[in-house]
Amino acid sequence: METDPALARTAFLDHDAPEVTEFVQRALRDTGTDDRERAVALYYAVRDRIRYEIYGADLTRTGLTASQVVRSGKGLCIHKSVLYVSALRSVGIPARLVLADVRNHLSSEAVRARVGGDVFHYHAFTSLRLDRWLRATPVFNRLLCRLYRIEPMEFDGTADSVYHPYDESGEHHMELLREHGEFDDLPYDEVLAGLRLKHPGLFVAGGGDRFVAGSLEADAAGTAALPTH
């Protein structure tokens, strides 16, 4: 019997790994069997239990597996979207990765310098099928949003939750510029090559598959908004 590609296990989307299974069971402990309810519970588990951090991001093949994301407890948009897709597939909800280029109007000077401007390439979020296909971004955790004075994105399982259009002051925050597409698995080589090409300043010296060290929480004292990626 052929498996739906949007439900398949892959090397990155290892939804049957013990770490992912335990994460999902904990997230759904007080949840019923309704797919929408489970999708929402998993969204908030990934959004707030996995800390969003760009600095020191592990972009190795192992570092971008769902199981390793759970073990590390942190990651950027790609890591968190990989985990959410894996968690959804583990309970039979079809899901895919979405990759896009976005412009952020309010990023800090330090992040803009590393990124090379206000456009970030290969920003990741997710697509999931309930009664229809929806999009959701379980990326920016509540604590970090509070530090950067941005309202956290919510998701109720009935409407898209893609990105922050405004900050708490009503100022325009982010816009989607170009989609690379939806993917049944992480296109690792494309993503890593694209990030190296567009954002070389984010990588550690010497060609390692890791972003430079630092802390978004430590940066929060001197900036007014959350980085886009």
Plain-language structure description:
- The chain has 229 residues and is of the alpha+beta class.
- Helices cover 32% and strands 17% of the residues.
- It is built from eight helices and six strands; from the N terminus they run ααβαβαβαββαβαα.
- The strands form two sheets. The protein has a four-stranded antiparallel β-sheet.
- A hairpin with a 3-residue loop joins strand 4 and strand 5.
- The longest helix is centred in the first third of the chain and has 15 residues.
- The C terminus is likely disordered.
Strand and helix layout:
Blueprint: H1 18-27, H2 35-49, E1 51-52, H3 66-72, E2 74-75, H4 77-90, E3 95-104, H5 109-115, E4 119-129, E5 133-136, H6 142-147, E6 174-183, H7 188-198, H8 216-219
Parallel strand pairs: 1-2
Antiparallel strand pairs: 3-4, 3-6, 4-5
